[in-house]
């Protein structure tokens, strides 16, 4: 069994619009470690969510995957390339909600308003396993209890609009985990929630990950959340990967100027009253728009820099 | 839920009283009445009418009574099924109404089924394959359908039927069955005539229904809950029907009640062209002749049907959409 659940290589996605083609992803490459939490950080429009949607093949026209591989090595089945699956491949339906599932940003709209919570959670089971409706509802109830919903026997009959935002996100998490996926993708799962609920949901995701030993791909723009959640970090900017490394490497000793800029822009108590650093002021005249291939450094991390910048780096390391 | 139904059913009563009053007043508004319009007709034929005969006629129609008494007599009779006598058709109104109402309902319901049978699949296809060749083809055909007045379509159908098939497609029965009692042969004859008004009346509604469904469905298709369901591994067809379509269909449920008056007014001209024995043409004649009992009964029945239709669609909607509260 390979160490990497997913190996994404040179993934490219384009959106064709009336005014031209947008390259949403270019040469995106990183691994998702088995049983670990990988975080993708980046600003809005950096391609975090598009990457996540590619893994579940949820990219809809006018968007399409134009190149690259998503090599998936499930625990219990032969490996295959998700990017190359035909649209009608039965493995696609197994993949979605079966071996990979997703928690979305907006718990208020991620559930259909006209079906009960129980119906929508149990449906995930019924889609993937050959069990009776009663068994599916029982398992759904178990999972709802596990994500911290009280009074499950009554709550399971209720509709999403009878739940608060935090409770709905718990339902969405239960729905995502109910088939025991090998990979749970969390696409900014706490962005729409208030701060105290955010902390609860993050703890819940982390605890469940330790229990269920699944891999997690955690998408966020909050570096504090990365420090709390992740084992490995992928920094994205404008549809490209700029730096990949362990949390310690990326957050303690960032190499790429953009990563440094991101870290410098975090507001802290020490900077009270002072102007926050902008990414531009830290990055200076470093060129972020020219793509450079990802190079692996001596400490194992990968970074996308020009050869001149790499040469500088080695000088300062000495 | 039960309390809601009871409340809604009783809520209909004041509405209907108000409508009956309005109908009565509106019909009384034009100068003159059935007697004056009859007198006009008789005098234009050179007949002399004695003042005594006029007074008798007025007494017969209760026209010599105060308005309030006239109203109470009319609505009181209506409640026990006595709708008065139609001077125009020289028959009791109730006979006339039930016969015409029956045909009208049959044509309305069948054209509604026709509309939905075409519009819903077309709308779904058009939304799911937005901007495809099929979408453009369907929306173009529907636009032409929407822009064609239905009476013109009726004329074209009649011309085509006569010119190419050598049949007269007016009316709801062939001449040999027109006054015959109901039999299997008469039913077949009726069905073979029914489809023309069904198509002609249904086509205009098909276009707008299809466009509304397309727009609703397009809205719903981009909602996050659809992506959630897809990410859950729901099969594409089931996904479409269970999630976006289920919500896109709600606006149609809420307009079922409004279909009745819309179809009746749309039906009138077509029925005149096609010579159908339905409510529309009779209502127009009754209004022109100020045949108070006939016109009032038609309008009142339409009001009852509309209010019932609204009740039905509200109840259906409350059943279909859990977000609706009963308080």
UniProtKB/TrEMBL annotation, chain A:
UniProt entry tagged with the keyword Cell inner membrane: yes
PANTHER family referenced in this protein's UniProt entry, alphabetically: ATPASE AAA-TYPE CORE DOMAIN-CONTAINING PROTEIN, OLIGOPEPTIDE TRANSPORT ATP-BINDING PROTEIN APPD
Cellular compartments per GO CC: plasma membrane
InterPro entries (UniProt xref): AAA+_ATPase, ABC_Ni/Peptide_Import, ABC_transporter-like_ATP-bd, ABC_transporter-like_CS, Oligopep_ABC_C, P-loop_NTPase
Gene Ontology terms for molecular function: ATP binding; ATP hydrolysis activity
Any one of the GO BP annotations: transmembrane transport
Membrane topology note: Peripheral membrane protein
UniProt-listed PROSITE patterns: ABC_TRANSPORTER_1, ABC_TRANSPORTER_2
Species of origin: OM182 bacterium MED-G24
Compartment(s) where it occurs, according to its Swiss-Prot or TrEMBL record: Cell inner membrane
Domain ABC transporter positions: 6-263
Superkingdom of the source species: Bacteria
Family annotation (SUPFAM superfamilies): P-loop containing nucleoside triphosphate hydrolases
Pfam families: ABC_tran, oligo_HPY
Protein name per its UniProtKB record: Peptide ABC transporter ATP-binding protein
Gene3D superfamilies, sorted: P-loop containing nucleotide triphosphate hydrolases
Family under the similarity heading: Belongs to the ABC transporter superfamily.
Alphabetical keyword list: ATP-binding, Cell inner membrane, Cell membrane, Membrane, Nucleotide-binding, Translocase, Transport
Automatic annotation (TrEMBL), chain B:
PROSITE patterns assigned to the protein according to its UniProt record, in alphabetical order: ABC_TM1
InterPro entries: BPD_transp_1_N (IPR045621), MetI-like (IPR000515), MetI-like_sf (IPR035906)
Transmembrane segments: 9-29, 101-124, 136-162, 194-213, 243-263, 269-289, 298-320
Signal peptide (UniProt feature, chain positions): none
Its membrane topology: Multi-pass membrane protein
GO CC annotation: plasma membrane
UniProt subcellular location: Cell membrane
Chief place of localization: membrane
Protein name: ABC transporter permease
The organism of origin for this protein: OM182 bacterium MED-G24
């Amino acid at each position: 069994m390979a160490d990497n659940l997913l190996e994404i290589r040179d993934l490219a996605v384009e959106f064709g619009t009336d005014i031209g083609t947008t390259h949403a992803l270019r040469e995106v490459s990183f691994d998702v470690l088995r049983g670990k939490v990988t975080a993708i950080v980046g600003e809005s429009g950096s391609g975090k969510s598009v990457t996540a949607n590619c893994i579940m093949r949820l990219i809809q026209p006018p968007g399409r995957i134009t190149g690259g591989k998503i090599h998936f090595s499930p625990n219990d089945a032969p490996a295959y390339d998700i990017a190359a699956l035909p649209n009608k491949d039965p493995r696609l339906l197994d993949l979605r909600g079966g071996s990979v599932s997703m928690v979305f940003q907006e718990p208020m709209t991620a559930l259909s308003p006209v079906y009960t919570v129980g119906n929508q959670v149990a449906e995930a089971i019924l889609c993937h396993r050959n069990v009776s409706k009663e068994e599916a509802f029982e398992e759904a109830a178990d999972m709802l209890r596990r994500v911290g919903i009280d009074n499950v026997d009554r709550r399971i009959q209720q509709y999403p609009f009878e739940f608060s935002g935090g409770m709905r996100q718990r339902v969405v998490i239960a729905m995502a985990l109910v088939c025991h996926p090998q990979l749970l993708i969390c696409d900014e799962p706490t962005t729409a929630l208030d701060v105290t609920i955010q902390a609860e949901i993050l703890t819940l995701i982390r605890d469940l990950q330790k229990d269920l030993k699944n891999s997690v791909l955690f998408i966020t723009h909050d570096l504090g959340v990365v420090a709390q959640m992740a084992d490995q970090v992928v920094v994205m900017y404008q549809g490209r990967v700029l730096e990949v490394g362990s949390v310690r490497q990326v957050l303690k000793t960032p190499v790429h100027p953009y990563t440094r800029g991101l870290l410098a822009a975090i507001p802290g108590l020490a900077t009270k009253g002072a102007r926050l650093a902008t990414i531009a002021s830290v990055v200076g005249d470093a060129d972020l728009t020219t793509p450079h291939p990802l190079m692996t450094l001596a400490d194992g991390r990968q970074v996308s820099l020009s050869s001149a910048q790499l040469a500088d780096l080695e000088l300062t390391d000495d | 839920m039960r309390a809601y139904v009871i409340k809604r059913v009783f809520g209909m009563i004041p509405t209907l009283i108000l409508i009956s009053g309005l109908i009565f007043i509106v019909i009384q508004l034009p100068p003159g009445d059935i007697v004056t319009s009859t007198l006009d007709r008789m005098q234009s034929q050179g007949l002399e009418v004695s003042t005594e005969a006029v007074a008798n006629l007025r007494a017969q129609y209760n026209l010599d009574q105060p308005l309030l008494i006239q109203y109470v007599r009319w609505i009181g009779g209506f409640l026990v099924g006595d709708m008065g006598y139609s001077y125009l058709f020289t028959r009791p109104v109730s006979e006339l109404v039930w016969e015409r109402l029956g045909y009208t309902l049959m044509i309305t319901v069948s054209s509604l089924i026709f509309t939905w049978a075409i519009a819903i699949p077309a709308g779904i296809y058009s939304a799911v394959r937005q901007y495809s060749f099929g979408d453009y083809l369907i929306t173009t055909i529907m636009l032409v359908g929407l822009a064609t007045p239905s009476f013109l379509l009726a004329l074209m159908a009649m011309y085509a039927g006569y010119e190419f098939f050598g049949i007269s497609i007016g009316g709801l029965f062939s001449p040999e069955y027109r006054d015959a009692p109901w039999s299997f042969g008469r039913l077949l004859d009726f069905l073979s005539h029914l489809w023309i008004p069904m198509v002609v009346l249904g086509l205009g509604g098909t276009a707008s229904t299809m466009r509304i469904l397309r727009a609703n469905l397009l809205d719903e298709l981009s909602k996050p809950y659809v992506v959630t369901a897809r990410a859950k591994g729901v099969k594409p067809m089931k996904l479409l029907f269970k999630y976006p379509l289920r919500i896109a269909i709600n606006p149609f449920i809420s307009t079922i009640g409004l279909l009745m008056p819309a179809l009746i007014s749309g039906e009138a001209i077509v029925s005149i062209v096609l010579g159908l024995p339905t409510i529309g043409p009779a209502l127009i004649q009754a209004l022109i002749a100020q045949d108070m009992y006939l016109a009032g009964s038609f309008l009142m029945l339409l009001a009852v049907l509309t209010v019932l239709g609204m009740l039905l669609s509200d109840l259906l909607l409350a059943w279909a959409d859990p977000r609706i509260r009963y308080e």
